[in-house]
Design goal:
Elements: H1 2-22, E1 26-31, E2 37-44, E3 47-48, E4 62-66, E5 75-82, E6 87-93, E7 99-102, E8 107-109
Parallel strand pairs: 1-7
Antiparallel strand pairs: 1-4, 2-3, 2-5, 5-6, 7-8
């Protein structure tokens, strides 16, 4: 019985993961800076979202992100905060991004 339940749960998880990535902005956040990334926020209607990150991203680490949607404008104002008190504020094109790399002074995407 437990095996069937685990198998069913695994199948549902794989199916929902496929659906989420099929219609959402999915990308890797690379931290190539010297500080931890402490928050990643997007702006809509002049207001900043809550932090998209459940944990800090250490220098050299990559974090998989999924907005869960691909609706709206491709270029979204984004603020990325660092543990040293600095931040980056930029318009990022999420429609064309699979990797977003934050560095000490800027952010680039490809």
């Amino acid at each position: 019985m437990k095996f069937v339940t685990a198998l069913t749960a695994a199948a549902l998880l794989m199916a929902s993961a496929g659906l989420a990535s099929a219609g959402s902005w999915v990308f890797n956040l690379e931290n190539k800076s010297e500080a931890h990334v402490t928050s990643f926020r997007t702006q809509e209607d002049g207001n900043w979202s809550q932090n998209w990150l459940p944990e800090n991203v250490a220098p050299g680490e990559t974090f998989d992100m999924d907005f869960g949607s691909d609706e709206g404008e491709c270029a979204v104002r984004t603020r990325i905060d660092f543990s040293d008190g600095t931040f980056i504020d930029a318009d990022i094109d999420y429609c064309e991004s699979s990797v977003i790399t934050v560095r000490n002074q800027d952010v680039v995407w490809r």
